[in-house]
Design goal:
Largest sheet: none
Order of helices and strands: HHHHHH
Radius of gyration: 17 Å
Distance between the termini: 36 Å
Number of strands: 0
Number of helices: 6
Structural class: mainly alpha
Helix content: over 70%
């Protein structure tokens, strides 16, 4: 009897691919997609900034938990990219200095207004209304689109 070897998961069987496919369903309009390309990074940066203004360790805890979530998706390219973007976000938040709260607040409000405008154009509700984890899938959606344009696979 020959031992059986489990076949690797097909891309469509991976959790990250299922999450991205579901997310894409409400992000097909090119204008909405463009808005998301700008607003999602702005929202993520503003969240880190807002949490940092509470206390730096709150922000560090949030980004650490986020990276654990990305690690659990078992998509190394996304994890590595999100780790680099996390370091960049923390550096930008530190650079804001004493203005971190007003800058982050303004960025958060403006970016969310644009997000909701994009979904009004799309005529579909944001994915996170169904499941909060889609707030963390949004950055992966932006990266997946960028990777596709660069001919990369995640």
């Amino acid at each position: 009897m020959t031992p059986t070897v489990a076949a690797p998961l097909a891309p469509s069987d991976r959790k990250v691919d299922r999450l991205l496919a579901h997310y894409e369903e409400s992000h097909r309009n090119p204008t909405n997609e463009l808005i998301h390309f700008v607003a999602i990074p702005a929202i993520m940066l503003s969240i880190v900034g807002l949490l940092f203004s509470i206390h730096p360790w709150v922000a560090y805890g949030f980004v650490s938990a986020s990276l654990v979530y990305y690690a659990l998706l078992r998509a190394p390219t996304f994890l590595l990219t999100m780790a680099v973007l996390t370091v960049l976000s923390l550096a930008l938040v530190h650079a804001m200095g004493g203005l971190v709260l007003p800058i982050s607040t303004a960025m958060f409000v403006v970016a969310w207004v644009f997000q909701f405008v994009g979904h009004k154009i799309e005529r579909k509700k944001p994915s996170f209304f169904e499941d909060i984890q889609y707030l963390w899938v949004g950055p992966l959606f932006v990266l997946s689109r960028l990777f596709l344009k660069l001919g990369m696979r995640w």
